[in-house]
From TrEMBL:
GO terms for biological process: cardiolipin biosynthetic process. It comes from Manacus vitellinus (golden-collared manakin). Catalyzes the synthesis of cardiolipin (CL) (diphosphatidylglycerol) by specifically transferring a phosphatidyl group from CDP-diacylglycerol to phosphatidylglycerol (PG). CL is a key phospholipid in mitochondrial membranes and plays important roles in maintaining the functional integrity and dynamics of mitochondria under both optimal and stress conditions. It is a multi-pass membrane protein. This is Cardiolipin synthase (CMP-forming). GO terms for molecular function: cardiolipin synthase (CMP-forming); CDP-diacylglycerol-glycerol-3-phosphate 3-phosphatidyltransferase activity. It catalyses: a CDP-1,2-diacyl-sn-glycerol + a 1,2-diacyl-sn-glycero-3-phospho-(1'-sn-glycerol) = a cardiolipin + CMP + H(+). InterPro entries: CDP-alcohol_PTase-I (IPR050324), CDP-OH_P_trans (IPR000462), CDP-OH_PTrfase_TM_dom (IPR043130), Phosphatidylglycerol_P_synth (IPR004570).
């Protein structure tokens, strides 16, 4: 049992809240403001990781799931919005969304399997009951960074007029490669990425 209201967890939830704002700005082609809001979301991501690493009382099992979940929600919304704005190809966005849906489904499954009886809905969705801690693979962390770099580059493209750049297209290929590789790493090292806290 742990306190879910830590600063890193609040920052992760704030990042989730910024996702629909960013999506709206991109669809409305307000790329200047969207770029600024994206930088703000990036700052919350850096801050929650820094605080969790340096203050033991701010680290939580919930945070180990909430932080990557916030990243996935933000990235999914950004990629769908950027695809609607014709800045990222549909095939790449589909690949990223499918991977993230599979990972989120796996998290829900792990939560169910590691929750001690009685497995009620109130206990299942109660963030105070910590049952497992997630440890992303190195390639998965790398993939998240690459995906965010592509988002930043794509948001900046219409602002600085390099939408058809070959460098941007090369970044699409790199992102596709790291996405597939990270999905395989979770499949291959699945059990090693989950640390069960309590099986009693």
């Amino acid at each position: 049992y742990e306190n879910p209201w830590t600063i890193p967890n609040i920052l992760s939830m704030a990042r989730m809240g910024l996702a629909p704002v960013l999506g709206y700005l991109i669809v409305e082609e307000n790329f200047d403001v969207a770029l600024g809001v994206f930088v703000l979301a990036g700052v919350t991501d850096l801050l929650d990781g820094f605080i969790a690493r340096n203050w033991a009382n701010q680290k939580s099992a919930l945070g180990s799931a909430l932080d990557p979940l916030a990243d996935k929600i933000l990235i999914s919304v950004l990629y769908v919005s950027l695809t609607c704005a014709n800045l990222i190809p549909v095939s790449l966005t589909s690949m990223i969304i499918l991977r993230d849906v599979a990972l989120i489904a796996a998290v829900f499954y792990v939560r169910y399997k590691t929750l001690s009886p009685p497995r009620t809905l109130s206990r299942y969705f109660n963030p105070c009951y910590a049952t497992a801690q997630l440890k992303p693979t190195f390639i998965s962390k790398t993939n998240t960074v690459v995906q965010l770099i592509l988002v930043a580059a794509s948001l900046a493209a219409p602002v600085f007029n390099y939408v058809d750049s070959i460098y941007l297209q090369t970044l699409w290929c790199i992102t596709a490669f790291t996405t597939v590789t990270s999905a395989y790493s979770y499949y291959h090292y699945g059990r090693k990425t989950v640390q069960v806290i309590n099986n009693k």
